[in-house]
Write a structure and sequence with these properties.
mainly alpha; Arc Repressor Mutant, subunit A; extended; 3 strands
């Protein structure tokens, strides 16, 4: 089922668990989950410390909680090795890997937004410079 298959008037009648978009957002929403999934998609299996370094500004506590939720939802696999010191690695599950094409589209869209913002800022800067030169 695609989002466009859902009739807008039916969405008001559906409970939140009947909306596939809401289900997806509940699983991957939040500030860090999509970034965790993206890093695992791009770099493959990672240890906790490496993931923590790759995602700037996330605390260890929050990263741990987000990884646990992703694991509970079946998007991330957690592999614990019986070593001293203990080693734990995270990777995308089969369901997590299904998100890669969506991440690719999101990255493409984000790139276009960034280019548009840069173009807009450049235009504003040029206009500001033109305004300054006409005053003098």
């Amino acid at each position: 089922m695609t989002y466009t298959d859902i009739k807008v008037n039916n969405m008001n009648e559906q409970s939140s668990t009947d909306c596939p978009v809401e289900t997806a957002v509940n699983m991957i929403g939040g500030k860090w989950k999509i970034l965790i999934i993206a890093r695992l998609a791009h770099f493959g299996t990672q240890r906790f410390g490496h993931l923590n370094r790759m995602i700037a500004d996330v605390s260890e506590r929050v990263l741990t909680r987000q990884l646990r939720e992703l694991e509970k939802d079946g998007l991330v696999c957690r592999q614990v090795y019986a070593e001293v010191p203990p080693r734990v690695e995270y990777s995308l599950s089969k369901d997590g890997k299904m998100l890669i094409p969506i991440l690719d589209l999101l990255a493409e869209w984000g790139g276009k937004q960034m280019a548009s913002q840069i173009k807009e800022l450049s235009s504003e800067t040029k206009n500001d410079a033109d305004n300054l030169s006409t005053r003098h």
